Amino acid sequence: MGIADPLIINDRVSVPRAELTVRATRAGGPGGQHVNTSSTRIEVTWNLSASTVLSDAEKGRVLQSLESRLDSDGTLRIVASDTRSQRQNRELAEQRLAALVRRALVIPRTRKKTRPTRASVERRLTEKRRAGAKKRDRRSHGDD
To answer: What fold characterizes domain 7-105?
Structure first.
């Protein structure tokens, strides 16, 4: 996957690299002198509101689904600092962005209302009667 290739989200959607902003910064955490001198933490941002890739319906679905992860401009920000390699962190961040948007694009199936079968209703009621009878039998009868 080269720098010029678009980021593939699914078989219909791919984001041109021009719409993505990639920034490298210094990562925190363990790593000694290496972590203090090299910018291996990668931050990938994508402005969903200004994107030309998604249709209006898809954009609305993604904006609603990822609402908590977007800033006020409608920009999605993904950060990766898992490895000590800038290239690997960039790939991880792009994979995470693609997976997030892919999940947001999925249209959930509408639930079909179903009715319980007559047998299952009968089993439930029989079990309720049995439990009630058990409790009734445990009660002390005033004639002792």
So the answer is: Double Stranded RNA Binding Domain (3.30.160)
